[in-house]
């Protein structure tokens, strides 16, 4: 058993607390040192580099909720303080694709319990070296009894026990760090992870969602979703998908990069209507670009069942601020959409700042996403970084609306990292209920 996974909850919490304390202390010390140094930018770069290395090493080795939080933060790297040399971004992106795996001797017993003692008759071959290692499990390439190549996802030992413990510790530590390290607003996303933890550990729940989405896109010329082959306790077998990670298209010719980014944005809008499920983990490690140009979609551990598609309330809210107008006009539009109860009022100006990452792109037929633009949106109102803030502004929102808003913020973050210039308004008009 891995010593890292076998640690007590207290020991893991202590490591998380020490990590955040170290990040905070180095940032504070560098701020002081930079005031007296001839080259203050060099001091700040060195501190960021040490912090990023510490973050990647600690979260990557711990796995569980600690690594899961790091992967989620990587989708919205603008939640971190300004980072001109992309040190944070590179460290967090590495958490998606390059995580230390566990030895096969620790994973094989879980595979046997999940598929049964005769698992070798179904799984004719399996590579003991994992093809990918993630936060709650790792994937091995194998061959099923009918000859097809498959991906065998095996959950880590003690994954359930450590997940909630890690997230509780991260939530507390990051709230403390946010008061000391200006610009770090990560705790709301950790809170979201805590809400979805149980479902991510249930591979049968994941298999049900994945099969539904795979069936819905089976004949698509733009997307490929591996179907489920078999599922058991802590084991999920799917068709193998070959492709390059979405982040790799950042260096592709412009037309290829823009096509992949457009397909990525479109999938989040299409999937709930076609399949009844929202893919709720939009970090780019879950998407692949295939040799024929299609977008492959992986990992349905974080999903939300939406049998009626995306909630119209979200589209109505985006549209009301995309169209602009006076505060009174926008308030009237919100009331007409049923988002504000009779007799209640909202701070329209603050709500407009919160909605700017969604509404500004929706004003344009084609919009150029960038990290600098997203940081400017957040700078207008700290609440824009916390999707739950909209509820405190007096809106009446269904729970699925808040989840849609969180996911879409992650999508916007990835589009900014790709510096995508893609169609927005027409796509929202066609595919986002309540917007058209």
What do these coordinates show?
By secondary structure, the protein is of the alpha+beta class. The protein folds into three domains: 128 residues, no CATH class; 95 residues, Phosphorylase Kinase, domain 1; 120 residues, no CATH class. Helices cover 55% and strands 12% of the residues. It has 17 helices and 14 strands. The strands form four sheets. Strands 1, 2, 3, 4, 6 and 7 form a six-stranded antiparallel sheet that branches. Strands 5-11-10-8 form a four-stranded mixed sheet, covered by helices on one side. A two-stranded antiparallel ribbon has the order 9-12. A hairpin with a 4-residue loop joins strand 3 and strand 4. Helix 2 runs parallel beside helix 4, helix 3 packs across helix 7 and helix 10 packs antiparallel against helix 16. The radius of gyration is 22 Å and the shape is globular. The protein starts with 8 loop residues before the first helix and ends in a 5-residue tail after the last helix.
List unreliable stretches of 5+ residues.
1-6, 75-79, 176-185
What is the averaged pLDDT score?
Answer: 79
What coarse outline follows from CA principal-axis ratios? globular
Number of domains: 3
Total beta-strand segments: 14
Helix proportion: 40-55%
N-to-C CA distance: 54 Å
What attributes does this structure have?
3 domains; 436 residues; 17 helices; 55% helix; Phosphorylase Kinase, domain 1
Question: In terms of topology, how is this protein built?
Answer:
Elements: H1 9-36, H2 40-62, H3 64-75, H4 87-97, H5 104-115, H6 119-122, E1 123-126, E2 132-133, E3 137-144, E4 149-155, H7 159-180, H8 187-201, H9 203-216, E5 223-224, E6 228-232, E7 235-239, E8 244-245, H10 254-275, E9 277-279, E10 287-289, E11 295-297, E12 303-305, H11 312-322, H12 327-336, H13 348-362, E13 366-368, H14 371-380, H15 389-392, H16 399-417, E14 421-423, H17 425-431
Parallel strand pairs: 5-11
Antiparallel strand pairs: 1-3, 2-3, 3-4, 4-7, 6-7, 8-10, 9-12, 10-11, 13-14
Helix pairs in contact: 1-2, 1-7, 2-3, 2-4, 3-4, 3-7, 7-8, 10-16, 11-13, 13-14, 14-16
């Amino acid at each position: 058993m891995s010593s890292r996974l076998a640690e007590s909850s207290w020991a893991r919490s202590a490591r998380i607390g020490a990590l955040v304390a170290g990040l905070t202390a180095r940032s504070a010390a560098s701020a002081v040192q930079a005031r007296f140094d001839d080259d203050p930018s060099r001091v700040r770069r060195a501190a960021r580099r040490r912090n990023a290395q510490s973050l990647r090493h600690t979260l990557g080795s711990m796995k569980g909720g600690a690594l899961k939080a790091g992967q989620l933060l990587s989708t919205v790297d603008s939640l971190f303080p300004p980072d001109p040399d992309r040190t944070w971004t590179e460290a967090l992106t590495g958490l998606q694709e390059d995580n230390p795996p566990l030895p096969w001797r620790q994973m094989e017993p879980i595979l046997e319990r999940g598929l049964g003692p005769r698992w070798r008759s179904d799984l004719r071959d399996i590579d003991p070296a994992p093809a990918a290692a993630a936060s709650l499990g790792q994937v091995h390439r194998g061959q099923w009894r009918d000859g097809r190549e498959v991906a065998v996802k095996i959950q880590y030992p003690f994954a359930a026990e450590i997940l909630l413990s890690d997230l509780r510790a991260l939530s507390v530590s990051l709230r403390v760090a946010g008061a000391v390290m200006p610009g770090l607003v990560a705790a709301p996303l950790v809170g979201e992870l805590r809400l979805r933890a149980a479902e991510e550990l249930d591979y049968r729940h994941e298999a049900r969602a994945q099969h539904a989405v795979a069936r819905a896109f089976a004949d698509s010329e733009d997307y490929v979703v591996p179907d489920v082959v078999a599922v058991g306790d802590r084991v999920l077998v799917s068709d193998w998908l070959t492709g390059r990670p979405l982040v790799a298209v950042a260096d592709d010719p412009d037309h290829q990069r823009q096509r992949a980014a457009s397909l990525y944005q479109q999938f989040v809008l299409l999937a709930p209507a076609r399949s009844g499920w929202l893919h709720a983990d939009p970090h780019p490690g879950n998407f692949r670009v295939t040799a024929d140009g299609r977008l492959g979609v992986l990992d349905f551990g974080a999903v939300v069942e939406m049998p009626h598609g995306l909630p119209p309330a979200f589209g109505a809210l985006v549209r009301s601020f995309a169209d602009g107008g006076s505060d009174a006009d926008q308030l009237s539009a919100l009331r007409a959409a049923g988002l504000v109860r009779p007799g209640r009022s909202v701070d329209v100006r603050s709500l407009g700042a919160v909605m700017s990452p969604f509404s500004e792109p929706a004003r344009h037929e084609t919009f150029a996403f960038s990290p600098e633009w997203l940081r400017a949106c957040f700078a207008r109102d700290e609440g824009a970084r916390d999707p739950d803030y909209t509820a405190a502004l007096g809106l009446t929102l269904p729970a699925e609306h808040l989840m849609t808003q969180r996911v879409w913020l992650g999508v916007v973050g990835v589009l900014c990292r790709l510096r995508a210039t893609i169609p927005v308004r027409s796509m929202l008009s066609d595919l986002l209920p309540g917007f058209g």
